[in-house]
Design goal:
The complex is a heterotrimer. By secondary structure, chain A is α+β, with helices and mostly antiparallel strands. Chain A is 25% helix and 38% strand. In chain A, the strands form 3 sheets. In chain A, strands 9, 10, 11, 12, 13, 14, 15 and 16 form an 8-stranded mixed beta sheet that branches. In chain A, strands 2, 3, 4, 5, 6 and 7 form a 6-stranded antiparallel beta sheet that branches. A two-stranded antiparallel sheet of chain A has the order 1-8. Chain B folds into 2 domains: 1-97, Rna Polymerase Sigma Factor, Chain: A (Orthogonal Bundle), CATH 1.10.1740; 102-180, Winged helix-like DNA-binding domain superfamily/Winged helix DNA-binding domain (Arc Repressor Mutant, subunit A), CATH 1.10.10.10. Classes of the chains: A alpha+beta, B mainly alpha, C mainly alpha.
């Protein structure tokens, strides 16, 4: 076992050395390019096709939490649980800003993807092509739709109440109430919480809900994935599930669900 | 089988490796424990297909990170508990289908389609619920409070089931009814 | 008079139960399936989820699951095209990465993991929101 690691380490060392040398040059050219970025046309973006916890970097790098099936990481043979130690020559271990380091490393490769990862204590090397994504925003009436929580009047008679969208595609929504959010056509991930009229719930139920939120606030927020069609506004609410108001269901946060309660035509500018 | 095994660091290492995808580690653990787990599942359910399902589910559960199995805990008792709980759940689901005319655990006919009579031996003469409770108490060492809780009943319910079951088995032995 | 200990002895003396040979192949195949799903991230992230949902296994997506794992789900979710599922998975993974990029807390990110896991395991996320969101 130790011999194999030694051998792998030596080969890896040689490879990394070569990679570092070229990476240094690449970093400089990218930096120079960034200064002129204002006038540069939108370039292709390169992606890994994985969810990586870039909030903190350990001695072995940053952890892959999930692999997008069919994406670059999947094709390369990376797995959830692998720790990324270097990408395209850039090291991710103990780096103070893993998020930007990873991003830069991906873009620098110009589509090439060389990964050094740690799995079960073993160092592995992967190489292949990154996924190329065209970031050019679509223009025109076919480009966008809207999601909103404040427009229109929720149909309370149908058990639908107000909701709040706290995140769209992983980004926080502004704290001031926004009438509507403009989004590109296509799929979007919303995180929603309910503003069900307390008058509709008994005090015991309200207490139970408060307890649940105190115990694990994360449970109070629910995901909703919507497929936005062009020129359509989606009205998001929270439907109260009357048959799920028992104690256990409240604990499980099963007493409500986010819904699209109406779709209205809303032209894109 | 009755001594409380201590946590075995070699085994804990096997479990860790198996969880991270090591095939041989998993195979070794299966070799070590599958017979015992399968046997327990069979005794409790009296049903070969159920015993296989439960064995499979139990070993897969061991691979999960959220299984509740801690590194320092001995594996076999944990596997047995998972298997027993699965058998109990199955039993409770089946029993819900039976008309709940009486809360008695002793239906007049042990209309349980127990397979291989020889394997089940004298246990076959007990209705499924009683069989499960008795086996878990007598052979696996579950306490009455544990059994009561698991079945959603009281510990005195469990005591009553066990004593009646043992009495019946004793009677059968005395009168020569049952296996062999 | 037969003593209780004799009953126990008889219980101990019951014949051994043979382990079916074919069972191993089945278990092994299921193991591979489980690891394949986990490779795509169905399991790892749930560790983080468990911490913030404050009850491992008691995730909202299993709310109302007094059915046992493996038992048929009565309300069968509509068949979804492979392409559709892939698109949704990509959207979720992008959203998740954006959240990590901005340094979001586990609690903020947890609901999106719930959606991803529900998608991967094919179980509706405790409510029909994901289904109803598509018209």
């Amino acid at each position: 076992m130790p011999f194999r690691t030694l051998l792998a380490g030596t080969l890896l060392g040689a490879w990394l050395f070569a990679a570092h040398a070229s990476a240094r040059q690449t970093v400089e050219s990218v930096a120079a390019g960034a200064l002129q970025a204002g006038t540069a046309p939108a370039q292709v973006r390169y992606e890994l096709g994985a969810v990586v916890d870039v909030r903190r970097a350990s001695a072995n790098g940053v952890s892959i939490l999930a692999i997008t099936p069919g994406g670059a990481a999947d094709r390369l043979g990376l797995q959830a649980g692998d720790q990324l130690r270097a990408i395209n020559g850039r090291r991710l271990d103990n780096t103070p800003r893993p998020s930007s380091t990873l991003e830069n490393a991906l873009q620098e490769g110009d589509g090439a993807l060389r990964v050094e990862a740690v799995r079960n204590g073993k160092t592995l090397a992967f190489s292949g092509r990154a996924d190329a994504v065209d970031p050019a925003p679509r223009k025109g009436a076919q480009a966008c739709g809207y999601v909103s929580t404040l427009a229109g009047v929720v149909p309370r008679s149908k058990g639908v109440f107000e909701a709040e969208i706290t995140q769209i595609d992983g980004r926080s929504t502004p704290l001031q109430p926004t009438n509507r959010h403009r989004v590109d056509t296509g799929k979007h991930v919303l995180v929603v919480r309910e503003f069900i009229d307390p008058a509709r719930l008994s005090s015991a139920q309200l207490q139970q809900i408060a307890k649940m939120k105190k115990f694990a606030l994360a449970r109070a927020y629910k995901p909703l994935v919507i497929d936005v069609e062009p020129g359509i506004g989606y009205r998001i609410g929270a439907r109260l599930l009357k048959d799920k108001l028992d104690t256990q269901s409240i604990r499980d946060n099963a007493y409500w669900e986010p819904v699209v309660w109406e779709k209205v035509p809303q032209a894109c500018p | 089988m009755h001594s409380a095994p201590e946590a075995n660091p070699e085994e804990a290492a096997l479990v860790r490796k198996a969880r991270w995808g090591d095939h041989e580690a998993f195979a070794q653990l299966y070799r070590n424990h599958a017979k015992a787990i399968h046997a327990l599942a069979y005794r409790l359910t009296g049903n070969a297909a159920a015993a296989e399902d439960i064995t499979q589910d139990t070993f897969l559960k061991m691979l999960g990170f959220l299984s509740g199995l801690r590194d320092d805990a001995p594996l076999r008792p944990w596997l047995k508990r998972v298997a027993a709980n699965a058998a109990i759940d199955r039993l409770r689901r089946e029993q819900r289908l039976v008309a709940e005319a009486d809360h008695d655990a002793w239906p007049d006919d042990s209309a349980d389609p127990t397979e291989n009579m020889e394997i089940m031996g004298m246990l076959q003469r007990l209705p499924p619920l009683a069989r499960t409770v008795v086996w878990l108490h007598e052979m696996e060492g579950w306490s009455h409070p544990e059994l009561g809780k698991r079945f959603g009943r009281s510990q005195s319910w469990s005591k009553s089931i066990v004593s009646r079951a043992l009495a019946k088995l004793r009677d059968d032995l005395e009168t020569g009814v049952g296996d062999d | 008079m037969i003593e209780p200990t004799q009953v126990r002895e008889q219980l101990h003396a019951l014949p051994e139960i043979p382990l079916p040979d074919a069972l191993w192949r089945r278990v092994d195949a299921k193991r591979r399936q489980k690891l394949q799903r986990r490779k795509l991230g169905a399991g790892i992230a749930t560790l983080a989820l468990a911490a913030v949902m404050a009850a491992p296994l008691l995730l909202p997506m299993f709310a109302g699951a007094d059915r046992a794992p493996g038992e048929q789900i009565a309300a069968h979710p509509p068949m979804r095209g492979e392409h559709d599922v892939q698109a949704e998975l990509r959207a979720l993974d992008h959203a998740l990465q954006a959240a990590y990029d901005r340094g979001a807390s586990d609690a903020e990110i947890a609901p999106m993991w719930v959606a991803r896991d529900a998608l991967l395991t094919g179980i509706p996320s405790g409510n029909s929101a994901i289904r109803r969101s598509r018209i």
